[in-house]
Write a structure and sequence with these properties.
The protein is α+β, with helices and mostly antiparallel strands. The chain is 38% helix and 16% strand. The chain has helices at 5-8, 13-21, 26-34, 40-47, 51-63, 83-86, 89-102, 156-160, and strands at residues 67-73, 76-81, 110-114, 119-120, 139-143, 165-166. The structure holds zinc ion. Zinc ion binds next to loops.
Length: 172
Protein backbone atom coordinates (compact mmCIF):
# COMPACT_ATOMS: atom_id res chain seq x y z
CA UNK A 1 0.00 0.00 0.00
CA UNK A 2 1.53 3.31 -1.07
CA UNK A 3 0.28 5.01 2.09
CA UNK A 4 2.63 2.89 4.15
CA UNK A 5 2.27 1.20 7.47
CA UNK A 6 1.29 4.32 9.41
CA UNK A 7 -2.30 4.23 8.16
CA UNK A 8 -2.56 0.46 8.23
CA UNK A 9 -1.78 0.46 11.93
CA UNK A 10 -4.53 2.95 12.77
CA UNK A 11 -7.90 1.65 13.84
CA UNK A 12 -9.76 4.93 13.23
CA UNK A 13 -12.48 4.44 10.62
CA UNK A 14 -11.30 7.52 8.76
CA UNK A 15 -7.83 6.01 8.45
CA UNK A 16 -9.37 2.73 7.28
CA UNK A 17 -11.37 4.59 4.63
CA UNK A 18 -8.31 6.54 3.50
CA UNK A 19 -6.47 3.26 3.00
CA UNK A 20 -9.01 2.64 0.23
CA UNK A 21 -9.77 6.10 -1.20
CA UNK A 22 -6.97 8.34 0.08
CA UNK A 23 -4.46 8.00 -2.71
CA UNK A 24 -3.84 10.64 -5.36
CA UNK A 25 -6.25 10.34 -8.35
CA UNK A 26 -8.57 7.90 -6.58
CA UNK A 27 -11.40 10.33 -5.83
CA UNK A 28 -11.20 11.84 -9.31
CA UNK A 29 -11.43 8.37 -10.84
CA UNK A 30 -14.46 7.69 -8.67
CA UNK A 31 -16.00 11.06 -9.61
CA UNK A 32 -15.73 10.07 -13.28
CA UNK A 33 -17.27 6.67 -12.48
CA UNK A 34 -20.27 8.52 -10.98
CA UNK A 35 -20.43 10.56 -14.21
CA UNK A 36 -20.76 7.29 -16.11
CA UNK A 37 -17.22 6.90 -17.39
CA UNK A 38 -16.52 3.17 -17.43
CA UNK A 39 -13.57 2.44 -19.66
CA UNK A 40 -9.85 2.64 -19.01
CA UNK A 41 -9.22 4.59 -22.22
CA UNK A 42 -11.86 7.20 -21.38
CA UNK A 43 -10.58 7.64 -17.82
CA UNK A 44 -7.04 7.92 -19.12
CA UNK A 45 -7.86 10.55 -21.72
CA UNK A 46 -10.18 12.59 -19.53
CA UNK A 47 -8.04 12.68 -16.40
CA UNK A 48 -4.63 12.63 -18.11
CA UNK A 49 -3.55 10.27 -15.35
CA UNK A 50 -0.50 8.12 -16.13
CA UNK A 51 -1.60 4.70 -17.40
CA UNK A 52 0.37 2.77 -14.77
CA UNK A 53 -1.19 4.82 -11.97
CA UNK A 54 -4.69 4.40 -13.39
CA UNK A 55 -4.20 0.66 -13.73
CA UNK A 56 -2.98 0.40 -10.13
CA UNK A 57 -5.89 2.47 -8.79
CA UNK A 58 -8.50 0.49 -10.71
CA UNK A 59 -6.98 -2.73 -9.45
CA UNK A 60 -6.93 -1.66 -5.80
CA UNK A 61 -10.45 -0.19 -5.98
CA UNK A 62 -11.68 -3.44 -7.51
CA UNK A 63 -9.89 -5.47 -4.83
CA UNK A 64 -11.49 -3.28 -2.18
CA UNK A 65 -14.96 -3.94 -3.64
CA UNK A 66 -15.53 -0.29 -4.56
CA UNK A 67 -15.53 -1.02 -8.29
CA UNK A 68 -16.33 -4.16 -10.18
CA UNK A 69 -14.81 -5.17 -13.49
CA UNK A 70 -17.16 -6.33 -16.22
CA UNK A 71 -16.70 -7.43 -19.79
CA UNK A 72 -20.10 -6.83 -21.43
CA UNK A 73 -18.71 -8.12 -24.68
CA UNK A 74 -15.34 -9.62 -25.63
CA UNK A 75 -12.62 -7.02 -25.61
CA UNK A 76 -14.67 -4.31 -23.90
CA UNK A 77 -13.78 -4.00 -20.23
CA UNK A 78 -15.81 -1.68 -17.99
CA UNK A 79 -15.45 -0.58 -14.37
CA UNK A 80 -18.67 0.06 -12.47
CA UNK A 81 -19.31 1.33 -8.97
CA UNK A 82 -20.54 -1.38 -6.63
CA UNK A 83 -23.07 -0.61 -3.93
CA UNK A 84 -20.11 -0.07 -1.64
CA UNK A 85 -18.69 2.40 -4.13
CA UNK A 86 -22.01 4.17 -4.65
CA UNK A 87 -22.10 4.76 -0.88
CA UNK A 88 -19.28 7.24 -1.48
CA UNK A 89 -21.62 9.64 -3.29
CA UNK A 90 -22.40 11.80 -0.19
CA UNK A 91 -18.65 11.97 0.52
CA UNK A 92 -17.82 13.16 -2.98
CA UNK A 93 -20.70 15.62 -3.04
CA UNK A 94 -19.70 17.06 0.34
CA UNK A 95 -16.05 17.34 -0.70
CA UNK A 96 -17.13 19.02 -3.95
CA UNK A 97 -19.16 21.51 -1.93
CA UNK A 98 -16.23 22.19 0.37
CA UNK A 99 -14.07 22.82 -2.69
CA UNK A 100 -16.69 25.21 -4.07
CA UNK A 101 -16.63 27.23 -0.86
CA UNK A 102 -12.96 27.10 0.05
CA UNK A 103 -10.75 26.01 -2.83
CA UNK A 104 -12.33 26.76 -6.22
CA UNK A 105 -10.69 29.24 -8.59
CA UNK A 106 -14.00 29.37 -10.48
CA UNK A 107 -16.96 27.96 -8.56
CA UNK A 108 -20.18 26.75 -10.17
CA UNK A 109 -18.74 24.53 -12.88
CA UNK A 110 -21.14 21.71 -12.02
CA UNK A 111 -24.62 21.66 -10.51
CA UNK A 112 -26.23 18.56 -9.01
CA UNK A 113 -30.00 18.24 -9.18
CA UNK A 114 -32.61 15.84 -7.78
CA UNK A 115 -34.13 14.55 -11.02
CA UNK A 116 -37.82 14.12 -10.03
CA UNK A 117 -37.94 17.60 -8.45
CA UNK A 118 -35.58 19.31 -10.93
CA UNK A 119 -34.08 21.07 -7.91
CA UNK A 120 -30.46 21.77 -7.06
CA UNK A 121 -29.15 19.84 -4.06
CA UNK A 122 -28.04 21.94 -1.10
CA UNK A 123 -24.58 21.72 0.47
CA UNK A 124 -25.72 18.80 2.62
CA UNK A 125 -26.83 16.87 -0.48
CA UNK A 126 -30.51 17.42 0.36
CA UNK A 127 -33.23 18.31 -2.12
CA UNK A 128 -34.87 21.61 -1.06
CA UNK A 129 -38.20 20.58 -2.62
CA UNK A 130 -38.85 17.09 -1.22
CA UNK A 131 -36.31 17.04 1.62
CA UNK A 132 -34.75 13.75 0.49
CA UNK A 133 -31.03 13.08 0.35
CA UNK A 134 -31.15 11.23 -2.94
CA UNK A 135 -28.76 8.49 -3.91
CA UNK A 136 -26.67 8.97 -7.03
CA UNK A 137 -29.19 7.12 -9.21
CA UNK A 138 -31.64 10.01 -8.76
CA UNK A 139 -29.12 12.78 -9.30
CA UNK A 140 -28.24 14.61 -12.48
CA UNK A 141 -25.04 16.56 -13.05
CA UNK A 142 -25.59 19.72 -15.09
CA UNK A 143 -22.92 22.03 -16.44
CA UNK A 144 -22.93 25.26 -14.45
CA UNK A 145 -22.14 28.89 -15.30
CA UNK A 146 -18.56 28.40 -14.07
CA UNK A 147 -17.82 26.40 -17.22
CA UNK A 148 -18.47 29.39 -19.47
CA UNK A 149 -15.32 30.74 -21.02
CA UNK A 150 -13.37 27.52 -20.63
CA UNK A 151 -11.80 26.13 -23.79
CA UNK A 152 -13.84 23.44 -25.56
CA UNK A 153 -12.69 19.99 -24.40
CA UNK A 154 -10.95 17.97 -27.09
CA UNK A 155 -11.62 14.49 -25.72
CA UNK A 156 -14.98 12.69 -25.84
CA UNK A 157 -15.66 12.51 -22.09
CA UNK A 158 -15.06 16.23 -21.60
CA UNK A 159 -17.35 17.01 -24.52
CA UNK A 160 -20.07 14.65 -23.28
CA UNK A 161 -19.94 16.29 -19.85
CA UNK A 162 -21.01 19.59 -21.41
CA UNK A 163 -24.54 18.15 -21.41
CA UNK A 164 -26.61 17.13 -18.36
CA UNK A 165 -25.71 13.63 -17.27
CA UNK A 166 -27.66 11.30 -14.99
CA UNK A 167 -25.16 9.83 -12.55
CA UNK A 168 -24.22 6.16 -13.04
CA UNK A 169 -25.72 6.06 -16.55
CA UNK A 170 -23.06 5.12 -19.11
CA UNK A 171 -21.59 8.23 -20.67
CA UNK A 172 -20.00 6.80 -23.80
ZN1 LIG B 1 -36.50 16.23 -4.48
Amino acid sequence: MPLGSDYASQACSLARALEIVGERWTLLILRDCFYGVRRFTDLHRHLAVPKAVLAARLESLTEAGVLRREEPRPGRVEYLLTERGQDLWPVLHALYGWGERHAAAVPGRRIFRHVPCEAELDVAGRCPVCGAEPGPGEVEMCPGPGLAGEPEPTEPVGRALLSPQRLLEPLT
